[in-house]
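Example record for the data management plan.
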Amino acid sequence: MLTGGASTRFGSDKSAALIAGQSLIARILTSIPDEIDVIIVGPDPVVAGRKYECVQEQPVGGGPVAGFAAGLAICTSEIVALIATDMPFAVTQVINLINSMKAHDDAAMYVDDDGFKQPLAAIYRVQAVEMALKSLDNSAGKSMRELISHLTVCEVGMSKEVADSLRDIDTPADLDVAIAFEATLSDNSKL
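Corresponding structural encoding:
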């Protein structure tokens, strides 16, 4: 899970923003099944009730590719899910991507109707990403788009339900939309 962004458009640490009384990072952590090991790239959020490891990208603020590389450096699995902290509803959809990944795929990610691939809510083969990172030479300041250009990506069409779940929170207005979306989820769970 990547949490190290500067949150400049949001104005404060996004990972601490609240939806229904729960921080974005705590919301994601509690929605990840217990049998899945969690690595947080960024400062320790001190969330009780869930085991996780923390690591910091080098240099601090080096961007999502540097963060991904830092997390992979301590990862012990062959396949990894990458989730940005500003996507508090993404966990289930990302886990579902594992069913789309074939033996020849390096990654699986959702793609919208405009062809945009969402690399910050995706499944990756660790070995393939490590090779792609070597071809980048230096991960600091690199874009996820540049990283995934070196991978064979299984593209999964993004339904409206998936798009709603992958909404990211970049601004206070985005947080308001996410709070309203969470209220609809809560209302539907009572049916």
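Summary line stored alongside the record: Residues 14-189 form a domain with the Spore Coat Polysaccharide Biosynthesis Protein SpsA; Chain A fold (CATH 3.90.550.10).
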